[in-house]
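Worked Example 4.2. Consider the chain below.
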Amino acid sequence: MKYSIALFLCFTALFACRKVDINQDRSERFPTPIDTQTLPVQLQVRKVWQATENVAFSNTFDGARLNGVTVLNDSTFQLTISPENFPINPSPWYSFKVWEKTPKRIFLNFTYENGKHRYAPKLSTDGGINWITASGFNKDKTQLTVEPFKDTLYVSAQELFTKKQLNEWANSLPNVKQSSVGTTPLKNEIKLIELNPTTEAKDVIVFFSRQHPPEVTGQFALNSYVETLMEENPQTTAFMKNYRVLVFPMLNPDGVQEGHWRHNTGGVDLNRDWDVYNQPETRQIAEYLVDKVKQNDWRVVLGIDFHSTYEDVYYTNLSDVTSHLPKFTDIWLRLIQERIPNYVPKISPSNVGQPVSKGWFYVQFGAVGITYEIGDDTDRDFIKKKSEVAAKAMMEILANN
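Applying the procedure from the previous section yields the following structure tokens:
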């Protein structure tokens, strides 16, 4: 026991000592700092609730979130959904399984601690492979009516996309290199996918996703964007010769695994930690990229971070006009609008302020930084179409850069 404690203290000290000054080459810093020191987190208890003789619930799977079940009567159940800590962004994630011995209609009342309802329930009867939006949800009462079903029913705030689905998707990509740039406190890998690992290109494009666990539509957008870049055609072939593409598809795997509303297991919003890197996820990614840029004389020219919010929006940097690609953002957004009928992108430009990823790409590397937000309820086919159009427009612009 004493040896284990001593080893842990040595590891902690070693980690602290090996921290590099990632900020040392910056020409400016973030004017609105955020405190990202680690905070306590309450991990949910994984269990099966045998609510009645007939009805049971479970949160014993990756991505699940259910904190309590109260029986109101033999067909009505109150479900408690609690955040990992507080204060927190109002993104109350939930995901659980429910089953009945004798199928009959039941009513599920959602109760959120320190939050309010956001996500329309999604249902799956095939183990989380295919999903539909629940038709029997009363938003005013936050009550879901579940019709009789024979097998286990998954109920989730959004479709599940955990590390299992991520690995399956990554393994389906042709001719990529998968690796890890580090591990999280729960021993999950921080995955890196290099789309064109054999290129000698020095200009680098970086993609982020899933800093916030519930933001599955942003994950879908990233996936479609990457798949478009991997198509075999003259445009992608020419693009891959001239640009190195690094994809970090799930920055917060611990939060995804634990069904967190927003934070990592350090109780912190990772997209506020791109300045002093208090959290292991941001620090390990930042160290990897900065070290690689220095060692290989790379130049990061573009960083896109895929997220979800209430509606589709592009958050951009006003400072991009002095970046490595000063005209990229305006041309890219114009082409997207021109190529999607009846679509007008919502654009929200701002100065560098809080230490979020889009500002970090510019502050650290002089790169264009964009936060690519997808609405919670945006049609899934449209997510794919918009990402395909955006990826092709990006390749076209950069080919003529």
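The domain at 48-156 is CATH 2.60.40.3120 (Immunoglobulin-like). The chain has nine helices and 19 strands. Compare this with Example 4.1 before moving on.
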